[in-house]
Specification:
- It is built from eight helices and seven strands.
- The protein has one domain: NAD(P)-binding Rossmann-like Domain (Rossmann fold, 3-Layer(aba) Sandwich).
- The protein has about 250 residues and is of the alpha/beta class.
- Helix content is about 45%, strand content about 15%.
Length: about 250
């Protein structure tokens, strides 16, 4: 219960799905946890689910001014930050021929620019031995239709993992990425896909994934915890948590 007692954690995009599951894991092991989100309803629900030991805040993961305010809040509340899980992001499925500048910019801002600058804002608060974990995606290595802008953003994030790992190494900060495959989260609903269609999509995906099942958010949380505290001799790496989809 106290494995992470005294440790401080910030999770962007932590009010649902993988971020919420990770917050629960860290809280259950005694860490002090702050999570962010953009939707009032999910912020309220996450606060109720995580309890009074968690701090749940509104923060736009694409806004540099919000990032400045968040960094100030972390400094005032925690004093230092041991783990930054830059998890905020989602996909919009748009065929290449129908891609608009607005959607393209949204995908790059949220999935690449946002994570890059949140690390810049928080790194000064991170002591030696701390860790940054990005959420990438199998889309950065699989040629998946209707995902070109999202895939490009996640590929950029994979590149940031390596370059920032090099730049932050002198400070003793490790930088790694978790690359989820199909995970049972509310993400398809956020993409505007009706539940019936989402269920059908998951059934089709199960046929493709070597392990023949959809992953659970808790499985991502365990991978994040590994990079956060146990992988002390690992930096610049990406861990696929995808049922073998990108490996077999």
């Amino acid at each position: 219960m106290d494995r992470y007692k005294g440790k401080t954690v910030l999770i962007t995009g932590g009010t649902t799905g993988m971020g919420l599951a990770t917050a629960k894991l860290f809280l259950g092991e005694g860490a002090r946890v702050m999570v962010t989100g953009r939707t009032p309803a999910t912020i309220e629900a996450a606060q109720a689910e995580l309890g009074e030991n968690a701090i749940v805040l509104h923060s736009d993961a694409t806004s540099l001014s919000d990032m400045d305010s968040l960094a100030k809040k972390v400094r005032e509340t925690f004093g230092k930050l041991d783990v930054l899980f830059a998890n905020a992001g989602f996909a919009r499925r748009v065929p290449f021929e129908e891609m608009t500048e607005e959607v393209y910019d949204e995908m790059l801002d949220l999935n690449a620019k946002g994570p890059y600058f949140i690390v810049q804002k928080l790194a000064p608060l991170m002591p030696e031995g701390s860790a940054v974990i990005f959420t990438t995606s199998i889309a950065n290595v699989k040629g998946m239709p209707d995902n070109s802008a999202y895939a490009a953003a996640k590929a950029a994030l994979r590149a940031f993992t390596r370059s920032l790992a090099t730049e932050l190494m002198p400070r003793g900060i490790r930088v790694n990425s978790v690359s989820p495959g199909p995970i049972d989260t509310p993400i398809l609903g956020k993409m505007g896909i009706p539940k019936e269609a989402a269920d059908h999509m998951f059934e089709k995906i199960k046929e493709i994934v070597p392990m023949k099942r959809i992953g659970q958010p808790e499985e991502i949380a365990k991978a994040v915890a590994f990079f956060a505290f146990d992988a002390t001799y690992t930096t610049g790496a990406e861990l696929p948590v995808d049922g073998g989809w990108t490996q077999l």
